Amino acid sequence: MSLSISLAINGQPRHIALDDPRVTLLDLLREQLDLTGTKKGCDRGQCGACTVLVDGRRINSCLALVASLDGAEITTIEGLAAGEVLHPVQAAFIAHDGFQCGYCTPGQIMSAIGLITEGQAGDDPERIRELMSGNICRCGAYQGITEAVLDAQKALAERKGRDAA
Amino acid sequence: MNRFDYIRPASVPEAIAAGAAPGSVYLAAGTNLLDLMKGAVAQPERIVDITRLPGLDRIDWLPGGDVRIGALVRNADLAYDMRFARTFPAVAEALLSGASPQLRNAATVGGNLMQRTRCAYFHDLASACNRRAPGSGCDARDGENRLHAVLGWSESCVATHPSDFSVPLVALDAVIEVEGPAGAREIAVAALHSLPGTTPERETVLAPGELILALRIPVRAAAFARHARYLKLRERASYAFAVVSAAAALELEAGVIREARIALGGVAAKPWRANEAELSLAGINPTREAFLKAAELALAEARPSGDNAFKIELARRIVMRALTLALEGTPAVMPALPASPFSAIPEAKLFGANHVA
């Protein structure tokens, strides 16, 4: 049994022929589409390394079946920068040293974008930490991550203000 | 993960017909099911994907004031719905204290109620577990059981139900609308999950093929909106299951408790409604002594199932603290750490020990 699935991945329409319904979004990205920026950590929804945006919402791609996502728009870490120009959240992670080894970083950045879109944290570092708790950093770069999210949120709000003016 | 057939029905009758066949399971977000399948704890032959069923993703306010929440509404969307969070604040707080933002964005209302226990022996195929493999025994009884049940457990099973969401739901008399091969029916959330007895493998009262279509919270529950809290003690500050938790809601009239609602989480195989504790508070002044007595009554039947006698005292204290904070009033804004006893609420004047100092 083969399933035909249509996805938009980083703006590109993709038609996937699934010959096995067991494929998760994470495995599709990494093993079939060569989008290895999304990382496999625990593969059980506990670490957040596999975080991507599905229809603009952050989810764990390890716990999502591709078969169930027909028609969805997926954004991964590869879809953020405009050529050589980094996304403001990427730039903020560099500016604030929001990582050490870097393995959790794509998930952290995708989660931060989701958090900013959700708009529930305000400028409260405690709320940012709580709403980033689905992303584990075993190097312990949490202080830089929190500062990066705060800063990027401000930069994005200013950019939005400029665009509206 | 085992091989399975995948089908995506377009209508509820089609889904039920497929779901009633032996070996079928329903798939919503899959945040619990896929985890179980990766560990081979669940090995379904057929996955019936219900995510495309029409009309199950809406929050509707019914003419009488009840709210009807479609089974596919995502946990985060319900918790952040302004009207819902104002009307049923303890439910929103419980939702936001569960899992992580990514999981709350995916996980559904129906799936949350149907999630399985987190007992490590249930998840470990090398262990005996009557819930997973009936008749095999229970390795938790003589194992690492400090987080296991203190109420309603049996020699067959000492697992707890992990849902936070369902704890305030049982306190507020929520019901689910179910449809199955034998037709439609309603079930109180309090009657959905079964205590283990000698058949722990029967986790809920749902018959094969029965599908949760919606959750309803009665308008009566809105009377508690100004004095309602959910508190959850975890072994870390965030993203952890409850050691013990409590929902407490008070309806006050001229300083007197008209009615109280109390339920506990993390203590049994089902969300635990504390009826006698509630009755003890009806019609009296909200005093420290009254709350202590209610907390005693809530745990009157508790007994340790292993190295977990501490949970009984902890559960009394979380009931006491939840009642105390409910009396102080529902916070105007959701605490930064929802449901955390360590979340500072500056204006709170607590009885007894106060972590905020």
Can you describe what's shown?
- The complex is a heterodimer of chains A (165) and B (357).
- Chain A is built from 5 helices and 5 strands; from the N terminus they run E-E-H-E-E-E-H-H-H-H.
- By secondary structure, chain A is an alpha+beta fold.
- Chain A has a 5-stranded mixed sheet, with helices on one face.
- In chain A, helix 2 packs antiparallel against helix 5 (142-164).
- The model of chain A has no long low-confidence stretch (mean pLDDT 97).
- Residues 348-357 of chain B have low confidence and may be disordered.
- Chain B is of the alpha+beta class and 357 residues long.
- Helices cover 26% and strands 18% of the residues of chain B.
Major beta-sheet overview of chain B: 5 strands, antiparallel
CATH architecture of the domain at 224-328 in chain B: 2-Layer Sandwich
Mean pLDDT score of chain B: 95
Across the major sheet of chain B, the strand order is: 4-5-8-6-7
Following the backbone from N to C, one meets helices and strands of chain B in this order, namely EHEHEEEHHHHHHHEEEEEEEHHH
Tell me the count of domains of chain A. Answer: 2
CATH topology annotation of the domain at 224-328 in chain B: Enolase-like, domain 1
Offer a quick outline of the entry.
Chain A has 165 residues and is an alpha+beta fold. Chain A is built from five helices and five strands; from the N terminus they run E-E-H-E-E-E-H-H-H-H. In chain A, helix 2 packs antiparallel against helix 5.
Helix-strand blueprint:
The complex is a heterodimer of chains A (165) and B (357).
Chain A: E1 3-9, E2 12-18, H1 25-32, E3 51-54, E4 57-60, E5 73-75, H2 88-95, H3 105-118, H4 125-131, H5 142-164
Parallel strand pairs in A: 1-5
Antiparallel strand pairs in A: 1-2, 3-4, 3-5
Helix pairs in contact in A: 2-5
Chain B: E1 5-7, H1 12-19, E2 24-27, H2 33-38, E3 46-49, E4 59-61, E5 67-70, H3 75-79, H4 82-87, H5 89-96, H6 101-106, H7 109-113, H8 120-123, H9 166-171, E6 175-180, E7 183-188, E8 211-217, E9 228-233, E10 244-253, E11 256-265, E12 272-273, H10 275-281, H11 288-298, H12 309-328
